[in-house]
Design goal:
α1 packs across α3 (about 135-155) and α3 runs antiparallel to α6 (about 210-230). By secondary structure, the protein is α+β, with helices and mostly antiparallel strands. About 50% of the residues lie in helices and about 15% in strands. Among the domains are: about 20-125, Upper collar protein gp10 (connector protein) fold, CATH 2.40.500.10; about 160-205, no CATH class; about 295-325. β5 (about 100-105) and β6 (about 115) form a beta hairpin.
Amino acid sequence: MSDITYKYSGISPFGIYDFRAKTKHIDMIGSYMLDRLSRMFEIEGLPDSMPEREIKLMLLTEGKIWTQHIDKSQLKGYDSGVYAFCGSLGGEPSIYLTPTRFIGANPRLLTGIDSVIGEDGVLIRNDSLMIGVVPVISKYATLLAEAWLSLQKILINARHVGVASAQSQKLAKQLAEYFKAIEDGKDYVITDKILAMETEGIKIQPLADTSVNAISQHIEATQYIWSQLLMEIGLNSNFNMKREALNAEETELNNDALTPFVDDMHACWVQGWDEFNDMFGYDVKVHFGSAWKDRQLLIKADDNIEKSEMQKGEDDDVGQSKDQGNV
């Protein structure tokens, strides 16, 4: 995860961002996305032994959690209660070739876990295939890291319009310092004496003047990748490739693409926590949160409008049929 150290001494913790450190950049994008996704669902009624923050992150990153009541005698420094664990699935396959056992370990457990699913505890899935969100975030975070690195290089290259070559080491050093100053956004002066002695040794190779188009294309590509990532997690983006207004049908198609994965996650969370309630006697409830809650409210409002319009159309048809029968 991120290794940023936050400072409260009044000294700003911010500095120049190194876009070349792609692994760190990808990790940062992923961490921010997990921050957002941790607000997708709100969980109410969890036992004290299961902090909401940790439970959400375990589900999102691991794709599943195993919940089981653990006696105090099996724990190091913790009281008896229902706890959540990460681990692997195995055992003799069921008739549908699904796992039947959960196998896991934890440094606070005196022994490992080898339990029967549905009997000793409850398996709660993040999604139907228990993939989690890490693979899809990693895919788009990698593309974003490349896009932003390319955009940074283009912005730097736009500061000069040619490539210089020198025939002496002294002038080459001066030119290197000159271009470093350009990259840093500083002014730099090459002395007249050196320039007068080495004028014949300086050659400028003009670069193609495509900086404006290149910047626009890379910004567009970055926005497209970002919008696709948001769409994967059920959030809309104002980006479109048409360069013009979208009609109602196109907007509806875009909306349809947002919901399936989020709906699958919601169904898995609700089912899992219902089974948890049945086994352990709790009343845990799952609700959409943040922007996803607003999104669901809009979808329900649109559905109600559509149903009202359909009902009105049916009523009008019935009325017309009666009128025709009276005639």
